[in-house]
Specification:
binds heme C; mainly alpha; 41% helix; 0% strand
Length: 185
């Protein structure tokens, strides 16, 4: 009798452990269970966040571009999309190493994989918005909601529409386009 109880409670405990795996369709659970992750990894690095996030754009997750792209961007910080974004040699190395080690090609995350696998072989995009996957996902959004929208201005402001972009969530339910609202396709 006693062993039946033990068996029963073991089944119960195992069942409870499975619940979040089955119901957890969000990126937080994905991150916890590695392979199931659907999004882009949220990895924090204080040096990167300090130097590359804030004034001009958010600190894009490294999993949004292939390693070759990050290397190319980091090789010319003097002319960084029209601004001088140079940093000292040590900081430069720390940031490059971080971006390359966590780039889209090194990631298991499903969306990251698409930011790299979608591109034509041989091309090295230097903007996230130049990647084939990005273009494919955003080609139905009219310009008046982006460049013609003073609360967005450019696709580089991911967090203007993806309200949890800084937490690495690009899920549809977190999208809200200023002046327009939710996106139903
Ligand atoms: C003007 C608002 C806007 C901006 C700015 C924007 N996006 Fe999006 N994004 C959208 C919309 C709307 C969709 C959903 C498109 C669809 O499903 O047809 C989307 C879809 C996506 C998807 C796919 C999500 C999914 O569930 O399949 C990813 C990933 C993404 N965006 C990343 C980014 C990144 C990274 C940036 C910044 C470099 C960015 N977006 C900038 C509006 C925006």
């Amino acid at each position: 009798m006693k062993s039946a109880y033990i068996l029963l409670s073991m089944i119960l405990v195992l069942g409870l452990m499975v619940v979040p795996i089955v119901w957890g369709d969000n990126d937080e659970y994905g991150a916890q269970y590695g392979r199931r992750s659907t999004g882009v990894a949220l990895i924090s690095n204080p040096v990167y966040e300090d130097e590359c996030g804030g004034d001009c754009h958010m600190a894009y997750q490294p999993g949004l571009l292939p390693d070759k792209s990050w290397e190319k961007i980091m090789s010319d910080l003097e002319d960084h999309f029209g601004d001088n974004a140079e940093v000292d040699t040590r900081t430069h190395k720390a940031i490059t190493d971080f971006l390359v080690a966590n780039s889209a090609d090194k990631s298991n995350y499903r969306r990251s994989r698409r930011f790299t696998s979608s591109n034509d072989p041989g091309t090295i995009p230097i903007r996230i918005s130049e990647t084939s996957y990005f273009k494919h996902e955003h080609d139905e959004i009219p310009a008046r909601m982006v460049t013609g929208n003073k609360d967005v201005n450019s696709f580089s402001n991911c967090n203007a529409c993806h309200r949890r972009a800084e937490q690495a969530s690009y899920r549809e339910r977190d999208i809200f386009i200023p002046g327009h609202g939710r996106w139903d396709d």
